[in-house]
Design brief:
- It is a single chain.
- An eight-stranded mixed sheet has the order 1-2-4-3-5-6-7-8, sandwiched between helices.
- 34% of the residues lie in helices and 25% in strands.
- With 253 residues, the chain is α/β, with parallel strands linked by helices.
- The chain has helices spanning 45-55, 89-100, 103-119, 135-146, 194-207, 233-251; strands at residues 4-13, 16-25, 33-37, 60-64, 128-133, 151-157, 180-188, 211-220.
- α3 packs across α4 (135-146).
- It is built from six helices and eight strands.
Amino acid sequence: MTAVHGRTIDIQTADGVADAYVAYPDDGAAHPGVLVIQDGFGLRPSLRSLADRIAAHGYTVLLPNAYYRNGRAPVVELPDFIDPAERPEIFQQVFPMIRELTPERLRSDVAAYLAWLADSPLVAAGKIGVTGYCMGARLAVLAAAMFPERVAAVAGFHGGPLVTDTPDSPHLIVGNITGELYFAHAGEDHHMTAEHIAQFDKALEAAGVRHRTEVYEGAQHGYTQADTSAYDPEADERHYRELLALFDRNLRG
């Protein structure tokens, strides 16, 4: 593992300025780019630590504040340990911001993030990897489908909803994805039922997308998030193994 440098940057978007965290190996070299899409709780120390760990394996990692239209991170004041059962008002604060992330806004934002990655001397030439968590997994699929020429690998962990009855459901546009996809669903997750998982897999197979999906049995929705009550250390370590293997296969020449 390489020493990592991390800092906050600003990225100009069509709707304003998005604050973001960038982490990269402290070796002066350019490395393959990775875009991390946050969970519903937002950009915070635990997600910065996640970005640092990916960067330590030889990647330049960009972690934007998806809620930048509502302010700089942290947009919502969060406790050091998040237990939604004890703090239901947190969801009342974040749900309106989640709903504001329409496909049109996502396309505009991701275009700005990809432009930053393409222009940065910290990032090696070539396609990037994308990974998302909870709601970010859904957004990661949409981003990979919107920019297939830029995304070589896309991963999602305890993500949802991936199958809905709306026209912008991720499972309807997976045929646009040209990179390899890995999804790890939580075994205990009402956001993605067994039926939803089967529908998502069927859509990937029908579209001919290179993919592997797994269910981490016993893990709860949010199992990778170390500052939450859903955290599962064993499932989290499995997530890192699979994620880094995916990126190594697809982002290294």
